[in-house]
Amino acid sequence: MAQGRRAGFIAVGSELLRSGRLDTNSLVAARLLRRCGYALVEKRCLVDDRDEVAHAIGQLLERVELVLVSGGLGPTADDITREAVADALGLSLVRDPEIEAALEARFTRLGRVMPEIGRRMADVLLGAEVLPNPHGTAPGQLLEVRGRQLLLLPGVPSEFEAIMLQHVVPRWGEAAGVSARTLRLAGVYESQVEDRVAPLYERFGRDNVTILASRGRVDLLLQAQGPKAEAELAEMESAFAATAGADLFGRDDETLAFVIVEQLRRKGWTLATAESCTGGLVGAELTAVSGASDVFVGGVVAYSNELKSSLLGVPASLLAAHGAVSEQTARAMAQGALTLGATCGLAITGIAGPSGGSPEKPVGTVHIAAVTPSGMRHAGYRFPGDRAMVRELAANFALDLLRRAVGEGP
Amino acid sequence: MAQGRRAGFIAVGSELLRSGRLDTNSLVAARLLRRCGYALVEKRCLVDDRDEVAHAIGQLLERVELVLVSGGLGPTADDITREAVADALGLSLVRDPEIEAALEARFTRLGRVMPEIGRRMADVLLGAEVLPNPHGTAPGQLLEVRGRQLLLLPGVPSEFEAIMLQHVVPRWGEAAGVSARTLRLAGVYESQVEDRVAPLYERFGRDNVTILASRGRVDLLLQAQGPKAEAELAEMESAFAATAGADLFGRDDETLAFVIVEQLRRKGWTLATAESCTGGLVGAELTAVSGASDVFVGGVVAYSNELKSSLLGVPASLLAAHGAVSEQTARAMAQGALTLGATCGLAITGIAGPSGGSPEKPVGTVHIAAVTPSGMRHAGYRFPGDRAMVRELAANFALDLLRRAVGEGP
């Protein structure tokens, strides 16, 4: 790793070892710790067992410079992280009267009485710094142990991220001198991006670039460190953006749907969707953006041929001649979406499988069309994978086609 | 844990330590190992570092009866799991001529030449049993170490699961005598379920019941072991199903959308949706079910008031009098969905936030209506959480209201 500081992550919670749950705080940790100059090299999920957690903390503190523990700071008997740390390091726990008073005030404000066991959330490891929790009750705790850092944060995702952003990143991020930028690409596969960026590795260092790909979207994570980090990062960004070309749709936390909503707003255009095989996925993505209602009027999920005709005006003769999954139908659906009262239309029709394929139109065949005041675009695909993957690829490539269509021209 | 055998899981792969990736094989492992009588007590993600992986395998073999390692069995230099195990246990690697020949044949079949480095996939730990990979090239390996089991499986999810199902579960599942069943509930919160099932814990054992909840859906994981496992499980199932009542919608892998598609098919009914705040989420859920096109004709995402009127026939005067988010509008939207050519309609209208709330109708206010040939149902909610959570709760409660509506009567 370029900057050499290593972090380990422990998620405490028996529920994380069962078949339906995944810890997601480690994703937030990986991203934010990178800004602080730490590379995450190990993560563990552990059951709520005081000995096990104590053991793991001891092990990790010997191997990495920062150990971040998520969870187990709540009020119940299952919440054993504080005690586990006390065991692991031979430290005592001290009840902090200030935190206790704040806890009581919080309960009073909510019209409830704090249960006795809730006072445990005011127990602080001797010598630890308390990191206030802006979104909840249990505060974080930060402890220096033989020159290494031990950071305890609540497991509730919103509280975990809030304390990281308010107390951890400002403190370590600047000192680390690490600058990071994510370039977001869509409508392209990982292998294509890898070929194009390979010549840049030598110039900027292989460790400073990470490629993350997922179903038609590719993120390029760039970082630079040291006194000239900002200047270097700017140079990297412009070099990688040049190779990305029109596949680049945004930076950092910008989603494809967010970028489209902003594009449409800038142009004063509105959008309606006409979905078949994606069944509402595209509408769901777009409306996940707060404020989408300014530009998104709505859409039609035209799963049956009858609805393709009755709501979108696709002629039955066209459907009979070319089939529901065809370039012609996609174009007619996009045109039909305009009749919902929008200036732009986006249509998707395809065969998601597992049944419905034929030799000429196998499972994975998808046609997409986007129409704007500047014109019509069409793209045809044969996507790999199962039903879920074909649908996600179709939704992602459709949003990307729309982005390119809306983005062109003045 | 009831049956006392503990398993640890290690996912090997540097990409799993970055901000965009989560290991999901551990979810499959947790579920399938449970059928084999093992409880997962720890999982770790590690970078592709031979020493780190060797170290972790050594540590876990001292603490649990089974260590399952996912990934690092491919052909590249990054794939270091085989060597790490050899280091950890002081075993040698032996190239297996049979596997080597199979690898070569596979490449020939694909019209390619096997690269020299690919032969590494034929390296087997001395004394290990080879578990053939029905979906890929690298086989699994099973080794007994001082009375404990070490299982190495490829990290590609389809290959991981296939080897578990074909080679591991049949071998250990029967011997363990563990029977398991999941009861799936919807339209209910975890705390309500907990209160109702609490009296059953004593009778069947707290360790045999796990509650997993997520946004309006609750799973009850039941298990029994020993010679009378099947009979005990049947007794548990009937007792828990009785407390669940009408909230129970399915078993094991059945999703809410799958159950609804089956219900509609049985009754010979069809469905159209009218979504506002969910923006297509409900349609996307329904069409995730293969064969949904038999009963789902499609729907309208009526995000704007204009579309609510033009496509669903909601009178503008009704919208003006009661607002777009109201019981009256939800009922009119559901009725309007029938005009798309279906016998059942499902409508959702709400305020997902963060903006758009008012003192009378705060963010989280959602109205749902379902109409079937048996009549109309309505439900109003004030959901907690952010935009994404309100939308997911709305989609889940809407599907559940529809399930109850379609399920009633003959």
Provide keyphrases for this structure:
Molybdenum Cofactor Biosythetic Enzyme, Chain A, 17 strands, 26% strand, 3 domains, 13 helices, homodimer, alpha/beta, 410 residues, 40% helix, elongated, Maf protein, Alpha-Beta Plaits, five-stranded mixed β-sheet
What do you see in this structure?
2 copies of one chain form a homodimer. Chain A is an alpha/beta fold and 410 residues long. Chain A has helices spanning 25-35, 50-63, 81-89, 97-109, 157-176, 190-204, 229-244, 256-267, 281-287, 305-310, 316-322, 327-338, 387-407; strands spanning 5-12, 38-46, 66-70, 93-95, 123-125, 129-131, 140-145, 148-153, 178-186, 209-214, 217-225, 248-251, 271-275, 296-302, 344-350, 365-372, 375-382. In chain A, α1 packs parallel to α5 (157-176), α2 (50-63) packs across α3 and α6 runs antiparallel to α7. The first copy, chain A, is elongated and about 80 Å long.
